[in-house]
Amino acid sequence: MRVTGAGGVDRSALPAGRAWWRGATGYEIYIRSFLDSDGDGVGDLAGITAKLDVLDRLGVDVLWITPFYPSPGKDQGYDVADYIGIDPAFGTLDDFDQLVQAATDRGMRIFVDIVPNHSSDQHPWFQQAIADVDSPYRDYYLFRPAAANGGPPNNWVSHFGGPAWTLDPAGSGEYYCHLFLSEQPDLNWANPAVMEEFREILTFWCERGVDGFRIDVAHGLTKDPEFRNNPQVREITLGMHPKDVFASFDHVHDLHRPETTKIFETWRTVVEPYDAVLLGEMDVRNIERFTEYVGGRGLDAGFVLKLASSRWEPATILSDLLTYERAALGGAAWAVSNHDQPRAVSRYGDGQVGVRRAAAVTTLMLALDGITFLYQGDELGLPDAVLTGVAMDPVSTRNGGVAGRDCARGPVPWDSTAVNGFTTAPVAWLETAPLPASLTAAAQIGEAGSTWERYRAMLDLRRRLPDLWSEPFEIFDRQATSLVIFRGPLTVIANLDDKAFEFVPEGEFHVEFESYAGAVGGDGGHLRIEPEATIVLSRREPDGRAIAESAEVTHGHR
Ligand code: GLC
Questions:
Q1: Mean pLDDT rounded to a whole number for the chain
Q2: 216 CA distance to ligand 1 centroid (A)?
Q3: What CATH number should be reported for the domain holding residue 366?
Q4: Both 359 and 492 in a single domain?
Q5: Domains contained in the chain, number
Q6: Within 13 Å and on the Cβ side, how many CA atoms surround 209?
Q7: pLDDT value at 539 more than 90
Q8: What separation in Å is there between the alpha carbon of 243 and the centre of ligand 1?
Q9: What pLDDT, in 10s, does the model give residues 403-451?
Q10: In this structure, are 396 and 493 located in the same domain?
């Protein structure tokens, strides 16, 4: 038994060993919308603790909890005013300790979300930086003189619209850099004092028993020392979505700097004594960049973000999955949804079609090395939320109401009472249309044939059949929209096509899982895999001998 730190967490229920997270299943909790335990309309830490048994039953190994730190909430907590505290809206440090212990007792681990690229402008560091230009905190941020014409120092833009520079409110005449809101000033990672601060912050949470960090905007930490303009790659037109304006530049000087990976090497030395995992959110969009982060002594893993925003384009989805599987060497974190994008069910076509497609891709992700995350509500088959009140996402509110991220952030529908049982307050912090009984946890948990039960069986695959992610990954057949993989005694068939697919397994086999009921049929040794399904077979000889090697497939059979 190992007991760590101030939280005094008893960890005896957790398996030991290196790289324990490979083959694990994670679950992203968007805390504001998970469950409100105290009736203020905002989800909280005690709400998570109250539902641990449900998450345990679902088969979750790791919970990633979005920021719960004291924050003015301009970017829903991604504007941190104190990195080692808890915002009263979410509870107290005692609530946090109780959550960690209760999760640990169930064999689950906690990842916290750490936001190192920027703080809140209300953080005491920034307050001192603007109060006194000679303060040591001035150099915690990126203050630069104005350009010759008095405008911003260079052409960098904010992800959330407008320039990435705002004039020092204290009137020094300098601008400060912010890749997100002006209330989220970027930290200066070229200043070793910032690393020292984060060394303490990381240690604080490790000592409280966390097992990993989801690192927000991990690709942004260091900037060009000369603050050169980014090359513009296309024209910017009036009314363009801020996301598109941002994508109109090649971000060679404000993102993806080689110095950033060095910073994570130092982070690794801080967290290694605790076996804590560094999991980056890197918006890389290309595999070479991805492996720079996860291939060395820096991050353990990174999210393959592209897959959490893609539409239903099966050929692209499959090729992205295989590209990252091959190159990430186990360092991939897979997810079809997160709190920043429309939900997979809606991106893939809504309704039962969207649910079916999301289940097929998620099943395949569970058959890949690395860690696979669900986003809260994936297991209920939730589509995007429909807003009935005001928008809360600054992407919308600061840009004349353009599409934002609120649609992914609706409260979890626990049951069919008011506000779907999320809160006892009259309304949730984000007002959304009530969801039908069929989409609630109350209706689905324990109900044969429900999406929740399908996901429980899906997650159970990784525990029941660890060969699924650990045995050599052998591609038996690869077509544009279908894939047959052998993993030791297991065969995984992903048929993302809109036509059925035939497969003739050699020897005895058993269907371990199908991503929807009736996805696999056939006779006379021919298996028929229906469209948009992933199935898992185990191949067994009657006497239990090694499995046969040969098999046949027929494509596009109807
Ligand atoms: C990440 C978060 C997002 C946040 C942004 C700025 O992309 O996932 O929600 O707005 O960083 O911190």
A1: 93
A2: 6
A3: 3.20.20.80
A4: no
A5: 2
A6: 29
A7: no
A8: 13
A9: 999 999 999 999 999 999 999 999 999 999 999 999 999 999 999 999 9
A10: no
